[in-house]
Write a structure and sequence with these properties.
Length: 395
């Protein structure tokens, strides 16, 4: 009976903390900016920035030193690609470089004088292409278009050579014995938004929650300094464990509707990949939200003022973006950065959510990331408890 009474009192204290924290959130415009406005607006802003997802009709200058039917056919086939547009023919490389320096073209195609002669002799012909590397998205588009162009020209030339050898039956069946076809799993549009947004939205969830929690923590520290070490808006008579659990559950529950909006409706609105089960990714993301809440409560130890959240937390967004593996694969990082990334809930969240959302993975198939986030939940729960006891001891 004594144990049951303690459990009941603990649960009642947790409920009071939950209600009090919810009241503090809805009455603080600054916290609502991070908890509501940022998760609602940022996914839309980011997705609009990256739309259209692919670049088309990139202007290219041509320097045709061959001036033959074969070279002209090469240029016509290049312009037939949806990714390349022939902007100008230049008599020499100097004029083509000037166009690129002026930003009028992003690529230069130089066809050597012996291009047709090499093809006629059955030798290997070369075409040089120079690309502006200021934007890797354009460079990737050029590489993809030129690869397809190369395969098509190889097929045509091989078919002609087979026919000239008197093997028309083989030529009629197909110029190449193996057909090359690209299938982009999880990103059928080959778009940048489809690639990066599913990961960025998870980082938005983490960063906005931590910013809001630490702003609440910094505001509480300010009230403590003004009131002799006591925060009059804190719930009195509740233990440290019930306090951190009540706050963490409040933040997690508050974020669940925003999570559904970000993970379910943003991909549908912008036609991004969304192949996985909603039940799977909502169950998967729960420990990430909970571990992020405990992490935010842990970081409150460093928040001396309300503005401390901006100084300490905001700059980490770019760091977490790199650690997530979106811009550089995690397996290629050294052990130190891999270990640091393992301590960030959103890193595991990005890895698992992309697999579920873009490749229709199930919850058992992302079990390593799921387990890792529960481990982080336990670790940050202990650190959050330590932070709460430290703050109380200073009261």
């Amino acid at each position: 009976m004594n144990v049951l009474t303690k459990i009941t009192r603990w649960a009642a204290g947790l409920g009071r903390v939950f209600r009090n924290e919810l009241r503090l959130i809805v009455r603080d415009p600054g916290v609502l900016l991070f908890f509501v406005a940022l998760p609602l607006a940022y996914p839309i802003v980011y997705t609009l920035i990256y739309n259209p997802e692919v670049v088309r009709k990139l202007p290219v200058a041509v320097v045709d030193n061959s001036c033959t039917a074969d070279s002209r056919n090469f240029v016509r086939m290049a312009e037939a690609s949806p990714s390349i547009e022939i902007y100008a023919y230049c008599p020499n490389m100097a004029d083509a470089k000037e166009l690129m320096a002026e930003g009028k073209v992003f690529g230069i195609m130089q066809i050597p004088g012996n291009y047709a002669k090499c093809i006629g002799r059955g030798e290997q012909a070369h075409v040089e292409f120079y690309a502006d590397m200021s934007l890797l998205l354009r460079f990737r588009t050029f590489v993809s278009a030129l690869t397809d162009l190369q395969l098509e020209i190889i097929s045509d030339i091989t078919g002609e050579r087979i026919s000239q050898a008197g093997l028309e039956s083989l030529a009629a069946g197909g110029s190449l014995p193996v057909k090359s076809e690209s299938n982009f799993l999880g990103d059928t549009e080959q778009g940048f938004a489809s690639f990066v947004i599913p990961g960025i939205v998870i980082l938005i969830l983490q960063q906005s929650m931590i910013l809001g929690i630490t702003m609440l923590g910094g505001t509480s520290r300010e009230r403590r300094r003004r009131n002799g070490g006591i925060d009059p808006k804190e719930v009195a008579g509740v233990g440290a464990t019930a306090t951190i659990f009540g706050k963490a559950l409040c933040y997690t529950v508050f974020y669940f509707p925003l999570t559904i909006y970000i993970m379910r409706y943003i991909p549908e609105i912008f036609n991004l990949p969304h192949y996985g089960s909603a039940v799977d990714y909502l169950l998967f993301i729960f420990p990430m939200l909970l571990s992020t809440a405990f992490l935010g409560l842990t970081l409150n130890i460093a928040m001396r003022e309300r503005e401390s959240a901006f100084i300490i937390i905001v700059f980490t967004s770019v760091v977490f973006l790199f650690l997530s593996g979106l811009t550089w694969p995690r397996y290629a990082m050294n052990e130190l950065w891999t270990w640091v990334g393992n301590c960030v809930p959103a890193v595991w969240g990005v890895e698992g959510f992309i697999r579920i959302n873009s490749n229709a993975a199930t919850l058992p198939e992302v079990a390593p990331a799921f387990k890792a986030m529960w481990i982080l939940t336990a670790v940050y729960m202990l650190t959050a408890l330590w932070t709460e006891k430290m703050l109380r001891s200073k009261a």
